[in-house]
Amino acid sequence: MKRKLLVLLLILFCLNSIAQEIQDETNMIFINKNPKELYLGAILKISSLDKDKYEIVEGSNLPQVTYLMINKDVPPMTPNLSSMRDFIRKEIKGEDLSTIVSLGYPKVQKVESYEKLGAVFGERINPEIMLAVNPKSKKSKSVYVATFTNMIYTINCQTDIVKAKAHPALKGLDPKNLMYVEQLSYGRFATIFIESDAEYEKIEA
């Protein structure tokens, strides 16, 4: 049995994101491809999830957000990257995050091709950039993806969706193409890509 292994190890400060669609309030979960840009309270164009870089709606006086913390009242804050980072730094100051290990088994999935990896990441990714493979090349073997995740820190926020919808920055934009980032999770994420003619059960074992 021949196998081809591709290992992708991402040590990201921002890992998972949960966003709520502004139009119908449906939640979406996706891997954050742009950890240096995404922040709580950001208004994101859904169509940009399939691009290499997200499109964030910018504007002055965006509705303030409230960070939801256990046993702690946090005053409303302006949604932007610097404010969020300053808040998180204060929250984790003095803590040794390297000792935090979240329990969980590796998740193994079978995908039709590298072009279908969006089913794993919750959005379209560019395998030529991430894995240095040609997604259009013909392959006789199946592609399996094993993911390992260690969540270290999660932060949530709440905002006034009505005010967000009415903000001038959203004028002329399709509300069905907008979502509001309300949760970010931080940690480590590793992925192993396997090309093999073995059955799924053998790969999972």
SSE order:
EEEEEHEHHEHEH
Q: Provide the number of structural domains.
A: 1
Helix content: 10-25%
The biggest beta sheet is recorded as: 8 strands, antiparallel
Number of helices, counting only DSSP H or I runs of 4 residues or more? 5
Distance between the termini: 15 Å
Extended strand count: 8
Residue-averaged pLDDT, rounded?
76
- Assign an overall shape: globular
* Class inferred from helices and paired strands: alpha+beta
CA radius of gyration is 19 Å
The poorly predicted ranges are 1-13
Strand composition percent: 35-45%
Compact overview of the structure:
The protein is α+β, with helices and mostly antiparallel strands and 205 residues long. It has helices at 81-92, 118-121, 127-130, 161-166, 200-204; strands spanning 3-21, 27-31, 43-45, 56-57, 65-68, 107-111, 142-159, 178-196.
General description of the model:
This protein has 5 helices and 8 strands; from the N terminus they run βββββαβααβαβα. With 205 residues, it is an alpha+beta fold. The chain has one domain (3-175, 193-204). A hairpin with a 5-residue loop joins β1 (3-21) and β2. It starts with a strand and ends with a helix. Residues 1-19 form the signal peptide. Keywords: Signal.
Keywords:
single chain, 205 residues, 8-stranded antiparallel sheet, 5 helices, 37% strand
Describe the protein's topology.
Blueprint: E1 3-21, E2 27-31, E3 43-45, E4 56-57, E5 65-68, H1 81-92, E6 107-111, H2 118-121, H3 127-130, E7 142-159, H4 161-166, E8 178-196, H5 200-204
Antiparallel strand pairs: 1-2, 1-8, 3-4, 3-8, 5-7, 6-7, 7-8
Signal peptide: 1-19
Keywords: Signal
